[in-house]
Amino acid sequence: MSAATVLLAVWPAWVAGVAVQLQQTALWPGGGYAAVLGLALLLAGAAAWWLHRGRSRWAPPLAPTLVLTLALMAAAAAAFGLTGWRAAAFAQQALPPVLEGVDLLVQGRVVGLPRRSADSQSWVFEPEAAWRDGQSVRLPERLQLGWYLRGQPPAQALPRAGERWQFTVRLRRPHGAFNPHGFDRERWLWEQGVGATGYVRTAPGDPAPQRLQPAAWGLDAARQAVGEAMAARVPDPRQAGVLAALVVGDQSAIDRDDWDLFRTTGVAHLMSISGLHVTLFAWLATRLIGALWRRLARPWPGLLLAVPLPVAAGVGGVALATAYALFAGWGVPAQRTVLMLALVVGLRLAGRQWPWPPLWGLAMVAVLLLDPWALLQPGFWLSFVAVGILFATDPAGRSPPRDAPGLTGWRRWARAAWGQWREQVVMTLALAPLSLLLFGQVSLVGLAANLLAIPWVTLLVTPLALLGVLFTPLWDVAAAAVQVLHLWLGWLAQWPWAAVYRAVAPLSLAVLAVAGGVLLVLRAPLWLRAAGILLLWPALVWQPPRPAEGRFEVMALDVGQGSAVLVRTARHSLLYDAGPRYASGSDAGTRVVVPLLRALGEAPHTVVISHQDGDHAGGANAVRAAWPQARWLSSFDADPASRCAAGQRWTWDGVHFEILHPAPAHYRADGSGALPSNAMSCVLRIDDGRHSAWLSGDLDAERETRLALAQPGLRADLLLAPHHGSASSSSPVLLNTLRPSVVIVQSGYRNRFGHPAPPVLLRYRERSLPWVTSPQCGAATWRSDAPQAVRCERVQRQRYWHQSGAGLGVAAGHSTAPAATEPQPDSDSNEATWRSPGADE
Fold first, then answer.
1. Peptide bond before 140: cis, by omega within 30 degrees of 0?
2. Alpha carbons within 13 A on the beta-carbon side of 321
3. How far is C-alpha 255 from the chain's CA centre?
4. Coil, helix or strand for 477?
């Protein structure tokens, strides 16, 4: 039994072991994982003993099967135990709850590249010492800190990579918004080794931040210096951002609008350090080292005897490719490529040649050894599936090489063009189902875009950007090439149906669809390839279940300190509010609302924006751009037809919708409100004849009381807590009138307003009203056919790296602790969600 055979069989077991451990909702004690590792050693020892015994002539006929079985069990147990042991060790350094929200003095070093937004800067910080009120305290090994900038301080005054600083900070445990198909910020922070997030205190009376030591020369400092040199050389930030992403891996330098453009045209994978870039760099490095080695061998012939040319070129090429991958951020595609290159070069130098599956599988195992949680990254699957498809469909072994004697001149170029065309068609067809599974969209212009973009970026932009590190005028040429690419992609993005959005299918249908995409491009009989369409079809036509006729569903999205609510009936949907505008300059419409609705296959027929405050209307522009055909109602529109006004009614699928407030008399002639903004909130009541829901924005207690007294017969099974649970709302008269069965409070984790307020929670307790909050529940879903229950996304998809509802201190009878008193750069929105879904391919 060969080593390649064993690897071919064992690597799926390793991946399965990691996958099973990542599904745990809670961690075992470290000793439990140590026991599993011990079992893995026993199984591996048994396999080795049986393999040795199988070499004798008395070996039983089933020896190979037994060896493989034991090896599979050993690999799965080792992967499970090792991943769990690492997770348990990391969990031990969690931030103690008593240190949340208090002033701490910390000293340490800035690591990685600081990220700058319009009004803040964030970075990873490794504390060396920390004190609370003069007493030393223990902190996690890595923190993610933000600095809310008042004004525009010079860049030299902000932390730089590699510097040692002293700050006064306030910290909290990692937390992120929790929505269906949404970005898992807590997992991302866990994977980065970040044990707490926080912000620098710069209020009057706080000690000023101090730079204790300038940056020592190192990898991160060099990356930041190159990125800043690019920004200084290239005046257009769009072009400079692409160059910085390709050279130093700083994807935050690319504007969000450009990420939308790259995603729509299907070229987002080119805007990060992909396997193609690393492979090209390795090939060029190998050629250059080979040529240099031959030249050095002329005066020193013994050099070739000491280190043969293939060894020098192969090892040197892999070493330089590794250095490039590290300089560019060491993403999953770069890791995979470097590992596979090292395996191929090592086997060639050893005089061996393995088939591609064990090489592919061994590289996957190596990546998971470095980072088991990479298995949950979209880039991991896109990267490895793409390479696997290229290997499986590579025609190179079935046709003469491109440099065959019979291929000269234009024929060679034609053959190369045909090879690129075929490869791009194969990748587009095969990866489309995976893109639908991961992102809910497929670019229909991706094939045309990539035919130019792949050679343009790989053979022109990237080499020029890299050489510009040595000769900066080349960055001007590279920037001009990026500008041409922007023009090409912008033209394609204007095409109708440039990108198609579909609801994200369940895992079972998605796996079948991916298998169908692979079948379509394999070199197989036509009937077998046609079967791929049958496997694809269920995922393409699938739609999430909807409420029955005459019933409705309310989903309160987790958008942090703000409001966004999706209401669905049998064939219609309504969006109430569009989420907040975040401190980083982005908004919940772009980050949460639009992606979630598209993942659910929803196109809202009506959008109601309760009032013009930023925590309710901050994402309105993104929603309007995504669905311009929707009907809009708000309390601040100059068009009378687009104003919400008491008395408006409509019925969808047996469900009745009614606007109760504001009255037409509350609008001035110019459309502005005669009442304060909160008091102008659009109040929407939804009723299916048996059960009802009440949505009232930030309506104040005075208007609540007037509505309740004017209609004492009003009832509502579901109450969306007015004004996020502020003490100025949820009046006793309203609660006594509506008598809700459940209350949903949309508020931010440790928000600076202290919502929900203790007096409001006391009113709920006095009336025995159960409630859930966004930090505790995530996205909360209530259905009129089950009015006593709320489905909490955080509970349904709980994993051990998430904070549980109990751990957040928001159970019945408890409220969230108050948070800081100034804006925080690391709000419930995630600094990493600016990344395109394909940014880490």
1. no
2. 33
3. 16
4. helix
Q: How far apart are CA 323 and CA 317, in angstroms?
A: 10
Instruction: Specify if 412 maps to a domain.
Output: no
Structure tokens at 559: 């958008």
If one compares 62 and 115, the residue with the highest pLDDT of the two is 115
β partners of residue 720: 744
Is 545 contained in some domain? no
Distances (CA, A) of 93 to 143, 193, 213: 11, 10, 26
The one-letter amino acid code at 431 reads: L
DSSP state of 675: S
Tallying the residues shown for the chain, one arrives at 841
Identify any residues that bridge with 781 across adjacent strands, giving them in sequence order: 555, 791
Residue 48 to residues 42, 52, 58, 366, 558: CA-CA distances in angstroms?
10, 6, 17, 22, 52
pLDDT at residue 810, rounded to an integer? 36
Distance CA 369, CA 365 (A): 6
Range of the domain at 338: 267-394
Alpha carbon distance 514, 540 (integer Å): 11
The total domain count for the chain is 3
The rounded radius of gyration (Å) of the Cα atoms in the chain is 29
Domain boundary among 394, 411, 438: 394
The CA–CA distances, whole Å, from 229 to 114, 477, 726 equal 15, 15, 48
Q: What residues does 683 pair with on adjacent strands?
A: 661
> Contact 518/532 with Cβ under 8 angstroms?
yes
pLDDT band at 833 (very low <50, low <70, confident <90, very high): very low
Residue type, 177: A
Whether the ω angle into residue 756 lies within 30 degrees of 0, i.e. cis, is yes
Report the alpha-carbon distance of residue 328 to residue 278 in Å, rounded: 10
Residue 210 lies in a domain: no
CA atoms of 513 and 538, how far apart (whole Å): 8
Give the separation between CA 272 and CA 275, rounded to whole angstroms: 9
Span between the terminal Cα atoms of the chain, in Å:
35
Low-confidence winner among 314-323, 492-501, 514-523, 813-822 (lowest mean pLDDT): 813-822
Q: Are residues 384 and 31 in contact, defined by beta-carbon separation less than 8 angstroms?
A: no
Residue at a domain's end among 394, 411, 426 = 394
321: enclosing H helix or E strand = helix 309-327
Tell whether 416 is covered by a domain.
no
